[in-house]
Design goal:
This protein is 62% helix and 10% strand. It is an alpha/beta fold. Among the domains are: 213 residues, ABC transporter type 1, transmembrane domain (ABC transporter transmembrane region fold), CATH 1.20.1560.10; 153 residues, 3-Layer(aba) Sandwich (Rossmann fold); 72 residues, Rossmann fold (3-Layer(aba) Sandwich). The strands form four sheets. A six-stranded mixed β-sheet has the order 9-12-13-6-14-15. The longest helix has 54 residues. The two termini are 68 Å apart.
């Protein structure tokens, strides 16, 4: 997977922005339980009085408080309250404001609290709570109690209730205070939720764009890499496997990237943040979260160990399924001709069944996780309620704090659940990333030289093979052995031999589809290994053994070799290739559509269009690799006659099986078991080469040969 990470580099800024937004989202999600706790503790239980510090005191009540507390606490209280006299002219507006909120303070001097910082507020809150409780005890509103036995949180809670009762005595509308507090806190929660939702949407958008961009770049990199492969590299990867790696495997990586950006950074923030805030609410119940996390990790490890080998197997099974499907689709006519539909159906069913069975197993393991997670979450909730209820009964915890602790516990468990999802997705994506990296890291065996020699484009195109031998990678015996010949400009060099003798391999060495094992091939005296591959191929017109056309139009296929070809050049090439009737019989003419691989054309039509495509290129060297095999005798003869006039200044290398096709060649090479056993004209070889005689007499009579 690390090998693919470099493709994230162009999206570094986007990923950093996503991390910032995820932090913002996590902080918003972590803040909500606190606000919910405040609504329960302060808004409901304390009637909206969020602290045990009265906004104002009547002068008599203020003095009573000062008499109850010790001298040090008295000084603290005095330092935070300011006297406002009922008849004090400079504070009339302020007094009137308090009078509107507390009608029963009319004509009485009051003490108002000054602005407090956090540390001052906490100290003053505890002092006033104890004082107000003592006042309530003295007035008979509360039974006598020992405040030293109560924890600070309980004392402050009781003090807040005493403040609420005191404000009612001053004429305050407690219901309005409570409603205002709940609405204000609720509005903050809505705002925070909105910020979190916007951050989540933005992260989702960024994650999708980053993953899509990486997928696009990976597909482009694979396509570019494969374009540079020689036949040696293609032999190491099946076509079905390369398609799977370019589609399914990259899709797996994209999916992981989306989930990684969304979860991998978010889950730890939520997990650690949830633990810190939960401990702040109640450290005595932290063991519940620890037990839940340990059980959760145990389940994740078990699932991970079971699922990982299966994920590795799935990708190979997809390869096999794609291979079977591709073979069936491309060979459908043969399958029908031999009535092997049942056999192919069974072959497909086996590949499909194996993949389905493995996927079902993995999905069962995955689906097992969710009920277990729900069981853990519900079990944790029940345990928190059970333990929390006892702590509330003992006045060691507030209801809102227990509810917040429960939400933080759920957030922690969900964080681990998200990480477990990542752990399950990572192995499959890692396998896919390895398969993609395998293609990208494949070192091409045929490379351009560091200091390439230029190919003379005005040269004659003379091709020389000097003691050329070739052996496929891993093979024990060479396919070609010590072959030497020269193909001159203006001449036709034909190559003939039995099936499997190495004819096509011999011509594939010229454009460097393979590199020679021994010896040298040169064009106009320049070794093909010393020149750039693009320069070599730019002067070669290649017509392969199996005609390859591309989806598009006739015109677009002809212009593959020369995008700047004029209409006259296209027409001339079509006439020479005897392909004009293909255009004439189509209403669209040159713009007639060509299906994928030329499926809407016959074999002969595809060969003629392939020949026309090579002619449009107007190269120095023509390679016809058994390019006339699908043509009838008349078309073959007419085409070769027209072709001879067009290629009278070019070097023509012609591979053929039929003697009639090569009989008039200037030079004929006879290949047998990878060795050159005869060279010369038709007449010479009929007298001197036994192999050529056998091939010729097997196809034509002596009269036809003469």
């Amino acid at each position: 997977m690390l090998k693919i990470i470099k493709f994230l580099k162009p999206f570094t800024a986007a990923v950093l922005i996503a991390i910032v937004l995820l932090y913002l989202q996590a902080m918003a999600d972590l803040a909500l339980p606190d606000y919910m706790s405040n609504i329960v503790n302060n808004g409901i239980q304390k009637n909206g009085v969020d602290r045990a510090i009265p906004e104002i005191f009547i002068e008599d009540d203020f003095n009573q408080i000062l008499r109850i507390v010790d001298e040090n606490d008295s000084e603290i209280i005095r330092s935070h309250y300011q006297l406002i006299a009922a008849d004090q002219s400079e504070d009339k507006a302020s007094y009137a404001n308090y009078l509107s909120k507390y009608p029963l303070i009319a004509n009485q001097n009051i003490y108002r609290v000054d602005h407090l910082n956090t540390s001052d507020s906490e100290a003053l809150e505890l002092i006033l709570s104890k004082a107000l409780i003592q006042v309530a005890v003295l007035s008979g509103q509360l039974p006598d109690m020992n405040l030293s036995t109560l924890d600070q949180q309980t004392v402050i809670q009781m003090g807040s209730q005493a403040v609420a009762q005191y404000l009612v005595r001053l004429g305050a509308d407690l219901e309005s205070i409570q409603r205002a507090y709940i609405l204000k806190t609720g509005a903050r929660m809505l705002l925070i939720s909105l910020i979190g939702a916007i951050a989540s949407i933005m992260v989702g958008l960024i994650a999708a764009r980053v993953a899509s961009g990486v997928g696009r770049n990976l597909r482009k990199a694979i396509f570019t890499k494969v374009e540079g492969f020689s036949n040696v590299e293609f032999d190491k990867f099946s076509t079905a496997s390369l398609i799977t790696r370019s589609t399914n495997d990259i899709t797996q990586i994209q999916t992981l990237l989306v989930m990684m950006i969304r979860m991998l950074f978010y889950a730890p923030i939520m997990g650690f943040g949830g633990v810190i805030r939960a401990l702040d609410k109640s450290s005595s119940m932290s063991w519940i979260i620890a037990v839940a996390v340990i059980i959760l990790l145990g389940i994740i490890i078990v699932v991970f160990s079971i699922a990982l080998p299966k994920f590795k197997a799935v990708q190979k099974m997809i390869d096999q399924l794609n291979l079977v499907v591709r073979e069936n689709l491309t060979g459908m006519m043969v399958i029908r001709a031999f009535n092997t539909q049942s056999f192919e159906e069974n072959r497909f069913d086996k590949a499909n069944h194996d993949l389905t069975k493995t996927n079902l197993f993995v999905n069962r393991v995955m689906t097992f996780m969710f009920p277990v997670m729900m069981l853990i979450m519900n079990g944790v909730s029940l345990l928190i309620i059970w333990v929390g209820a006892h702590q509330i009964a003992e006045s060691n915890m507030q209801v809102g704090d227990m509810m917040a602790f429960m939400q933080y516990a759920m957030q922690i468990i969900m964080s681990f659940l998200m990480l477990s999802m990542m752990f399950i997705m990572v192995p499959r994506a890692t396998v896919s990333a390895g398969r993609v990296a395998e293609v990208l890291e494949m070192e091409a065996t045929i490379l351009d030289p560091i200091n390439p020699m230029p190919i003379n484009r005005s040269g004659k195109g003379i091709v020389e093979y000097k003691h050329v031998s070739f052996k496929y990678p891993g093979a024990e015996e060479p396919v070609l052995n010590d072959i030497t010949f020269t193909a001159k400009a203006g001449e036709v060099t034909a190559i003939i031999g039995a099936t499997g003798s190495g004819k096509s391999t011999l011509v594939n060495l010229l454009p460097r589809f393979y590199d020679v094992t021994e010896g040298e091939i040169s064009i106009d005296g320049v070794s093909v290994k010393s020149a750039k591959q693009s320069d070599i191929r730019s002067i070669i017109g290649y017509v392969p053994q199996k005609s390859a056309l591309f989806s598009g139009t006739i015109e677009s296929n002809l212009k593959v070799g020369n995008p700047l070809a004029t209409e006259e050049m296209l027409t001339t090439a079509m006439q020479i290739a005897q392909a004009t009737e293909i255009v004439n019989e189509k209403p669209e003419g040159m713009l007639a559509p060509i299906a994928q691989s030329g499926a809407n054309l016959s074999g002969g039509q595809k060969q003629r269009l392939s020949i026309a495509r090579a002619l449009v290129k107007q190269p120095k060297i023509f390679i016809f690799d058994d390019a006339f095999s699908a043509l009838d005798y008349k078309t073959d003869t007419t085409l070769r006659a027209a072709l001879k006039k067009q290629t009278d200044h070019a070097t023509v290398i012609l591979v053929a099986q039929r003697i009639s096709t090569i009989k008039d060649a200037d030079q004929i090479l006879v290949i047998e078991e990878g060795k050159l056993v005869g060279t010369g004209t038709h007449e010479t070889l009929m007298q001197s080469c036994m192999t050529y005689q056998e091939i010729a007499l097997s196809q034509l009579s002596l009269e036809e040969l003469s």
